Amino acid sequence: MTALILGLLLFFSTHSARIFAEDNRAQYITHFGLAKWKLAYSLASAIGLGLIVWGYGAVRLDPIVLWAPPLWTRHLAAVLTLPAFVLIAAAYVPGTRLRAKLGHPMVLGVQLWALAHLLANGTLADLLLFGCFLVWAIASFAAAHRRDRAQRVVRGEGALDWDAVAAGVGVGAWFVFARHLHGVLFGVVPFG
């Protein structure tokens, strides 16, 4: 459990700089440069993510069960992760209406992903992992919208054609992950 907690602290301390320490982040970038910030951010995030994966895998061998979710929540989780993948894809496909309207579709996708997994899993490790991601994504979305308002960000309309591309990429990634990778990586087959 220690590795999981340390990984979560390290990963979210870097990913929460824009939520809780925007001024410190800006000072670091001004003093050391954007390239060094990105290097430090990436390194700390990668170590944190590695600890999360390792720690979560270790804790799953001897889980502390808090509640027993009904079987149907697994099916609901599989369905909820579909729009999560589409939203995450929309964050990276340029010119989508989803990004133009929502502003930050990736953190909305992370919210759906985390909520889906919280509903379908009932161990302490699941609560820590997916609960942290859900709380972070909610805080990140709120902070990003505050920044957008303060900076008077105006987005273009976006195009439905690009939404179709994002939907295709998201659905394809969701299918491959759910059908082939989730079982191999995590030992749980969503449609099994």
Automatic annotation (TrEMBL):
Pfam families linked: NnrU (PF07298)
Subcellular location(s) per record: Membrane
Regions annotated as coiled coil: none
Keyword Lyase: no
Key words of the record: Membrane, Transmembrane, Transmembrane helix
Domain of life (superkingdom): Bacteria
Domain NnrU: 4-190
Topology versus the membrane: Multi-pass membrane protein
Membrane-traversing stretches: 37-59, 71-93, 113-138, 159-177
Name listed for the protein in its UniProt record: NnrU family protein
